[in-house]
Prior knowledge:
The chain is built from twelve helices and eight strands.
Amino acid sequence: MxxxxxxxxxxxxxxxxxxxxxxxxxxxxxxxxxxxxxxTHPERAxxxxxxxxxxxxxxxxxxxRADIIVIAVKxxxxxxxIESLAPHITDRHMVISVAAGVATSTFEAxxxxxxxxxxxxxxxxxxxxxxxxxxPGAKADQEHLDIAKRILATTGVVLQLPENQLDAVTAVSGxxxxxxxxxxxxxxxxxxxxxxxxxxxxxLVVQTALGAAVxxxxxxxxxxxxxxxxxxxxxxxxxxxxxxxxxxxRDIISAAVHAARDRSVELGNKA
Length: 271
Ligand SMILES: NC(=O)C1=CN([C@@H]2O[C@H](COP(=O)(O)OP(=O)(O)OC[C@H]3O[C@@H](n4cnc5c(N)ncnc54)[C@H](O)[C@@H]3O)[C@@H](O)[C@H]2O)C=CC1
Ligand SMILES: O=C(O)[C@@H]1CCC=N1
């Protein structure tokens, strides 16, 4: 939990900010008055006010009210946000950035005395099942890391890694929910093609995904071992896995993760 006196100000109130805001407000010790958002899209700002009872405001007001500023705009928008915030940043602020690819040094170049913590969360934060990795910038000490960790802990699991791992983390867990959602989409479509009704297919796929994830987390066995346990010799799973291997699923997943990691680096270079 964030301390009673902290106010967390979000710059950008999109999907990721909402996931973090909902997590923060699930923490009963956090009051709606401790969360503010600066969101340029008026309908989106209205939605956040109506849904979460939080206040929306401009940059100056946000910097005035908040001591913890969370940057949750697209990486491409980060430079203009830095410029807008710069006149209002003081020694009492810290910055937490969730922008993919954007290095802490990008913020530090302008906010030269401000502690910055870079974070890569993911959207399951919205349901308290996120995983976030935090990495300290040059001016961030243990106290700032602890604040970032306490905020992220309201949305799920938190790990700390060196910043040079964050582009890779972005490709695995930041982007990762999309891999599983795509697999679910494809499995549901395939289920209907073998004669199962779409609603039933959805239930089958969702519970299978949930069960597999819980087994992976709790059984103590690794993914390959758990897969082997499903695969009877000469059986149905072997028939399916043979097709996936023959058609290059391993290469496809590896290429996808490399592409996401490279795009994260590229987005950071543009910011
Ligand atoms: N969506 C995801 O799964 C994840 C996103 N991220 C990062 O979170 C950041 C936000 O991503 P999303 O929430 O997906 O994008 P989004 O497009 O849903 O949200 C961005 C919000 O910022 C607002 N905005 C644009 N310019 C602004 C400005 N100058 N001042 C204030 N608000 C402004 C937009 O109106 C929009 O509501 C990105 O940097 C992304 O890399 C990180 C991890 C996961
Ligand atoms: O697609 C993106 O760029 C963001 C970062 C990780 C997940 N979504």
